[in-house]
Each structure stands twice: as structure tokens, then as C-alpha cells.
Amino acid sequence: MSNSEATPRTLGVWACTCLVIGNVVGSGFFLAPAALAPYGTVALFGWIVMSFGAMSLGLVFARLGRIAPAAGGPYAYTRMGFGDFAGFLIAWGYWISMWASQPAIALAFVGYLRVFFPTLGEHPFINLALALASMWAVALVNMRGVKEAGQLQILMVSVKLVPFLAIALLGLFWVDWSHFTPINPTPDPFFVALSATAPLTMFAFLGIESATVPAGDVKNPARTIPIATIVGTATAALVFTLGTLVVMGVMGREALGRSSSPFADAASIMWGPWAGYVIAFAAMLSSLGALNGWTLLMSQVPMAAARNGVLPQVFADLNRKGVPARGIVISVGLSSLLLTLQTSGTDALISVYDFVVELSTVAEMVPYVFCCLVEGALYLSLGKTMGYFNPRTYIPIAFIAFLFSMWTIYGSGPQAGMWGLLLLLAGLPVYVILHHKRVKSDRAQSQAPDPA
Asked: Cα 175 vs. chain centroid, distance in angstroms?
């Protein structure tokens, strides 16, 4: 996971595409149709609109990946365009949002495992142990090297995509179109209801920037990152929109709202109980794939920031495999602590955990907003405003992506936005301490006598 010259680049187009798909089509998507059920057909419009916005964001990251394929993704781009302080805020919030989201993915894995072993629901401590084991097993794979992590991601994505594409495409023949009336079953105006779906649909798309983060380990990043980002985002948009249409059309809005495993339930209705088990197995693989992909990114962003002196140096320490293993241990350790608190049985701690996970969506949208703005600054500073870097195409793409990002934050509500800001500001003491050390070190070096 190093971007040094001594470390070979091991991630190709397919591995990077699988990283994007694996992180985007994660466990959150499997529950999205049920969460969107109260909005009825408005939810389908929400998927279509957000797919358009996600593709715009994907184009922003694809273009950034071509002009500045630097390791660290959104953090690296923000730092290049706006300096160390803005880069720190993005790295801090992005890192927290990733390790705070890991417990939810691990619990989703255990939840799908309970389809095969129903008695697991009677043993909460076994559930906790299995969830912790899933996070640490994936962490160990990542600590063996980025090549191994990439190979695991290819396997997970290749296996899980087949059943979900089958539902999204073949399931259209089982759709009851009467389930899509009325179009807006909520008492709110259409646009208000549509805005309410924004954070739910955009949450599923989080991760479209995945291919940009490990750029130091990507083969030919100027070509690979754009291809992986666009193909991965387009594939996810297709699966999300058609998948929700099929599940809602097969189950109906009311039954869908009561389902804890909507895709497995819809598959059972269409093809029998065996299909539900297949989907549950694919969902387990998807959860592991999401854990793997986010663990990879969870180490890369703080590593890039630590190399620039804006996060503690421990995040940049590499093991013999060229992996920031200590950073992985710290991040997964925090995820494990949060998971343990969540399953401790204390209602207050559970509500805190749920709130932190909700904030992760807002925290991840802030880097997206910055990247929309920083692209113009990178064009100017790098002098690449001609040829296929045409400002006439950049401006509308970045503007649309910026509006969609802001719309998602708006749809999350003022409370989540306020706490998201406080989450970013909580890192200021860390930045002040590290900045003081960096200034002190630079002053000492400048005052050192020249060697004879």
C-alpha cells in the first residue's frame, strides 16, 4: 500500500473496478429498498436522479484521477487545491466516517449468516464474536499486502454480482406494476419527498471514489482510475435502480417496509426458498467485500495524510509487505470498540452508535463537495486546461456534482449537518499539535549550521 518507487504497482483495471463495485454495492444497499418503501414510486425517481448525480461525481473523480493520480484520493486532491488545513479536515472526517461504518457492515454479515443458522439470534455474544472475527480476518488479509486485498475483492465481487444482476434483470418478468400507484404515497409534496430519499440513495453510492485512494498501488493510474470509476458507478446505478424496482414490484410497498431482508424475500417469492438462501449467501459475500474494500481505504487515507505531517506518523509506518499495518490495527480497533459498545445492551450507547453511523453519510459528502471545487484549482495550477481537459465540459459536470452533494447534505437535515460540522472541528486539537511540531522541526532545521 505504499506509493514508493520500491513497491510494485499491483492493482489493475479489474481490481480497481471491483474495489469500486464492492464498496458501493455493500450491505447498505440490501436494506435500502425497505428503508425507501414509505416513499413508494418516488423512491425510484430518487434512484434515477441520484444515479445521475453519482455519475457526475464519478466523472469528477475520474478527471481528477487523470490529472493528479495521487495516493489518498479526496484528501490528496483537497490538500493540493486548498492546502494542509483543508486537507486535514477532509482526511479526519473521511477516516472517522469509514471506521464508524465498519461495525454496521460486520453486523450485516452476521445477520445474513443467521439465515443459515437461525439459533445465532439467541446468542448475542456469539454474534459479537463473529462480527469482530469478520473485521479482523479482513484486516489480516489487508496487512498481507494490497495485491492479496485486491484478489479477495475480485473474488467477492465476481461471485456476488451474478445473483443480484439476475434479480435486477430477470425479476422484471415477476413485477406487478399496480404496486407503483400512487406515485407519491406520502403527505409531503413531491420534491420534499424526493429530497428525503437523497441521503438514503446517496448512502448506497458512497465509495465511488474508491479507485482514487490507493493510486500509489495502481498500474497506469491515469488510465485505470477513470475506467474503474465510471464502469463501477454505472454498474452500481443499474443494479440499484432495477433491483429496487423489482423488489418493490414483487413484494409491494407495505410488505417491503416490514422486510428485514428484502432481496432474499423477493427471490423466495419469485423462485422458491432456495433462491432466498442464494441471495443471503451473496449478501454475506457482499458484506465481506465491503469490509475488505473499506479496510483498504481506511488505511490509505490516514497514511497519505501522515506522510504530509497532518496526521500522526504511526499511520504511515509500513510493515515488511509495504502496508500501514499499525494504521489498520488502530482503525479496526476503534471499529471493534464501537461494535462492542453497540452490542453491550445499553440503550444510550446504541443510540450514540446509530447517530455516529448516520453522521458518516454527511461526513463523506463533505470531501465530495471539496473535490468538485478543487478540480478547477488543479486545472489552473497544473496548466492542463486544453485537450481532453476541456473547461467547457468540466464546469457543468463539477457544477452538477456539487449541487447533488449539497442536496444530499440538505436532505440529511440540519441536525445531522450541525453534528457533522462538530465532528470535523473535533479534530482541530490534533491538527494544532501536529502543526506546532512541524513548525518547530522546520525552525530547528533552518537554524542548524551548514555542514563544513
From this structure: 30
Dihedral (CA of 140, 145, 151, 154) sign: positive
What predicted TM-score, i.e. pTM, was given to this entire model?
Answer: 0.75
Which amino acid belongs to residue 300?
Answer: Q
Kindly tell me the sign of the dihedral angle through the C-alpha atoms of 215, 85, 419, 316: positive
The DSSP secondary structure of 171-212, one letter per residue, reads GGGG--GGGG-SS--SSS-HHHHHHHHHHHHHHHHTTTTGGG
Burial per residue of 224-252, b for 16 or more beta-carbon CB atoms within 10 angstroms, e otherwise: bbbbbbbbbbebbbebbbbbbbbbbbbbe
Read off the pLDDT of residues 234-271 as tens digits, 9 standing for 90 and up: 888 888 888 889 999 999 888 888 776 788 888 889 99
Where are the extended beta strands (E) located within 284-416? Answer: none
Going from the N-terminus, what domains does the chain have, and what CATH number goes with each?
A: 13-447 (1.20.1740.10)
Question: Residue 269 corresponds to which amino acid?
Answer: I
Average pLDDT over the chain, rounded to an integer: 78
Q: CA 254, CA 257: separation in Å to the nearest integer?
A: 5
Cell numbers at 301, concatenated: 487515507
pLDDT tier, 348 (very low <50, low <70, confident <90, very high otherwise): very low
Residues 213 and 219: their CA atoms lie apart, in Å, by: 13
Residue 71 three-state SS: coil
Phi, psi of 11 (to 5 degrees): -100, 120
**Measured over all CA atoms, what is the biggest interatomic distance in the chain, rounded to whole angstroms?**
87
Dig out the grid coordinates for 43 from the structure: 423512491
Cβ atoms of 266 and 246 within 8 Å: the answer is yes
**Cβ contact 90:81 at 8 Å:** no
CB 295 within 8 A of CB 105: no
Distance, in Å, from the CA atom of 156 to the CA atom of 152, rounded to the nearest integer, reads 6
